[in-house]
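=== Structure Prediction Worksheet ===
Name of assembly: unnamed complex
Input type: mixed (protein and possibly other molecules)
Chain count: two
Listed entries:
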Amino acid sequence: MITADKNTKAVDLVRAALDKAKEYEDYHCFISMNEARALERAREIDEKIAKGEKVGRLAGVPYALKDNYLSPEGVTTAAARMLDNFPSPITATAVAKLEAEGAIMIGRTNLDAYAHGSSTENSYFGPTHNAHDMSRVAGGSSGGSAVSVALDIVPFALGSDTGGSIRQPASYNGVWGIKPTYGAVSRYGVVAMASSTDTMGCFARNADDVDLIMSIIAGKDPKDSTTLDDFWNRELDDARPKKKKIGIIKDFLKDGVDPEVSKAVTDYADRMKKAGYEVEEVSMPIMKYGLAIYYIVQPAEVASNLSRYDGIRYGHRAAEVTDLDSVYSKTRDEGFMPENKRRIMIGNFVLSSGFFDAYYLKAQKARTLLINAYNEAFEKYDALLCAVAPAPAFKLGEKTDDPLQMYMEDMMSVLPSLAGLPAISVPAATSKSGLPIGVQLIGPRKSDQILLNIAKGIEEVA
Amino acid sequence: MSKSDYKMTIGIECHVQLNTKTKLFSAVDNDAVDKEPNSCVSPIDYALPGMLPVLNKAAVEKAIRAGIAMNCKINLVSRFDRKHYYYPDLPKGYQISQMYQPIIGAGEVLLPDGSTVKIEHAHLEEDAGKLTHYDNYSLVDLNRAGTPLIEIVSMPDIHSAAQARAYCEELHRLMMYAEVTNGDLYQGNMRFDVNISCSKTDKLGTRAEIKNLNSFRSVEHAIEYEFERQTKLLDKGEKVVQETRGWSDATGKTTTQRSKEEAQDYRYMPEPDVPPIVLEQSYIDKIEANMPMMPDEYRSRFGVLNLDNSEREAILNYPILAKRLNEVCDKGGVQLAPRVAHWFSGILLAEENLDKDFALATAAELTELSEMVEKKELSSTGAKAVLMEMYDKKNTQKTPHQLAKEMNLLQENDEDALGAIIDEVLTAPECAKAADDVRSGEMKAIGFLVGQVMKKSKGKANPATVNELIKKKLS
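=== Predicted Assembly ===
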């Protein structure tokens, strides 16, 4: 467990994390470091401990923060030029909750600009490298956070997951990642991507740590009307599955999935059987449409959410402008990355009159069918098992010129996102070339702890 | 062809700013009157990254009240949508509105002349900020951004400029009576967009929309102008262009602002950050049970007072006056209330008195004042003087009787006391001739004698009583 060992000073923990971050600088996990403030916080905590005052459950534990969470410490860039000098007056709810427990943010991690991407290559500040092979991508969009945990710089990091942005980099770097039930954690103070699927989660190195972090950041927040009443309230070991039945999504065992990845899934299924689970294949044909649904709904919300970046009130503003239209077009042209622009264009297209019914509305109807299919499956199973991503981490630059190939990365991760379901990414295997492969467990709403409980149990089975 | 062959069809969209304490989606002051620009703005209104709207329940309640006032169905489930366009007065780049499932459904507004205008629906939305343009720059004030609005959409149910004006005036009254808005048109608390088309057949003509009218007068005049303009075009065999037009009070004309081709595509999308509004019928019933009286109820109550229509409607424009008059009816009945009504319409509603706080005089005081006139303790001129004092803050603790006394306006009705003065006057040498004239039946001379008594009594004598007494003494 990451709860600080009483004999180690917070200052030493933070110092060690900062040193390690420096040592691994070439991986480019971080956009900015929070060194001075982090050390100051650590000293405050050490003083409290010395005085015998009460400190939080994470007192002195260093962590890394995806750079799309607002906090007055430093600037929040969302890895976009648009916000490259945005000092936020706001603290995100999740950050405030961690700080209240004494956790110390040592730096802000790299991401695809505005979390648009699956490789952390779309960052204005350059890509992050995979923890296991520097020539490969970190995955994304929370690539920096995943790598910072994989390199053991910090014991945990916060990320955000809209269609796989925590789970896929977790899988690529061999760490645990969770996308909780939609509404489990407040979105307040996190730069919005696609509001109806945005979730806040974390990376850590085991189920207990994930559970501890999530139990702290989860809960109802009056500032986010979509948050649910706190359901993260059990001991992890008590969150046992009732049916002891798992379904493997058959549709994702062959088509478009690397054989090594498929094998990782079936091997994991075998371990589950050994642990006493009944595991069977389940056909869910609607799953094939997930990616199509997601790449209509998500860009629509992205286009809408990015409308506020207009150069009028804060953030980047183009220098040479002649009139209002040029303020908008030049500012947005300079401030956004190509992938941001692509999604804005797709989003505005599917929402425009004349196309709305054919695309957006149809996608929302299909989304309902998808949710129904999940509900039906969960009548029978505690959880569904499939891969996180179709293949292990790809080479840097390999897919940057082919957005569609890049989108294909998300074909299995977007599904629980569209349905608001919890899903975890668990390290399961290593490829022949030494790359980590994760598997994904998906459960009904609010079954987050049960998923962690199941996966924790499987860890003990060879 | 004559204009009278054309039938005009009008639909009106009315924006009403709700007078909630805080904004629709943020907890900052909603009242920006006389405040520094951008001083009533939260990070939510400012659209900082990561900010999320939190629905103000008070705005929902006000919307329900407005809906009930218009006899509309209140929808148990309603939802918000985003309406997108780029303009510096719209910080998020979208307005949160209700496109598909509004909170207020169909209803009907009854106008004072007995005609009705059907309401299509009304929805909740947020207002935008305000831009002020200068030579080569513009300033943005977001104080108003996020103020709750309801947009009331009528059916194309109106057929004359006068009826349109009457509808707007009645909407204003309804919103004031429902206590959902401050109703100050000058401050933009209510704004009207008018759609007009003309046709000689039952098939509607092409419409033009005149946006952002902020007075009843401009609604009426803009429609009159537009009827002229459209029918002239049609008579010449030309077409009316579907477009948005602006109205200028200064020139008295409408002019093209934006054609249909230039119209914005708002790219509506369900608002994912605000859950649907789900209401219990019992909650709506409770609000309905506690609604104050509406103008039409007052109209029927005031029927017994035999007021003329313009007088009654003038009073109804001020809910507090209607309320007071109604209370006076309860206390003083048909005998005392009409006089109070005349005071309201004749004195209080004169230009120079409109800044007075009409709530200051209570119904009990007004009834007392009317009763004093009735009992001849006070002349009607004296009563008017007392009335004005009653609307002075420093006098709130005083009764009309006390005020009249202080002002030396109480009339002398005591026959003994008056008798003494009269005897004095009648025996005075300068009055001898007049007294003789009256005795010999020349009643015209009595006026002089009454005048003398009034003078001696310093105006406190009741002239009618004096008249009677003199007659008696000289007969």
